[in-house]
Design a protein that fits this description.
Blueprint (H helix, E strand, L loop, with lengths): L1 E3 L20 E3 L19 E3 L19 E3 L20 E3 L9 H8 L8
Parallel strand pairs: 1-2, 2-3, 3-4, 4-5
Length: 119
């Protein structure tokens, strides 16, 4: 099941989601979001589009460990250090056009992601 958020809606509308395990793709791009809602309950979630928002912070608890694609480009993210370490299945990670500065720790974490092929 893919979920597309419409303008002025709750980022995760309960009426659309019948079972958390039904959600595999989540489209939350271009919605003016300032934070990432907790998505860890979606155990089958593989792809998340959060690009073109106003997100400043990425928390470790936001995603489940089976996520394979994460689109965070065009936000206001300052750092992702420690937030993605548990995403061992991640293959695609887009972070361009953010406000990230000190990248040494982040690069070190990304080196441990064996399946990551698009950055």
């Amino acid at each position: 099941m893919e979920i597309y958020k419409q303008d002025n809606e709750d980022p995760l509308p309960k009426r659309v989601i019948q079972r958390d395990t039904d959600v595999t793709h989540l489209h939350l791009a271009r919605r003016g979001l300032t934070y990432i809602p907790d998505l860890s309950r979606f155990s089958m979630l593989r792809c998340v589009w959060l690009n073109n928002n106003k997100i400043r912070e990425v928390s470790r608890a936001s995603f489940n460990c089976c996520l394979t694609e994460l689109y965070l480009q065009n936000n206001d993210i300052l750092s992702i250090s420690g937030a993605l370490r548990h995403l061992t299945c991640l293959q695609v990670l887009l972070l361009s056009n953010n406000q990230m500065k000190c990248l040494e720790e982040t690069v070190s974490e990304l080196k441990n992601m064996q399946d990551l092929h698009t950055l």
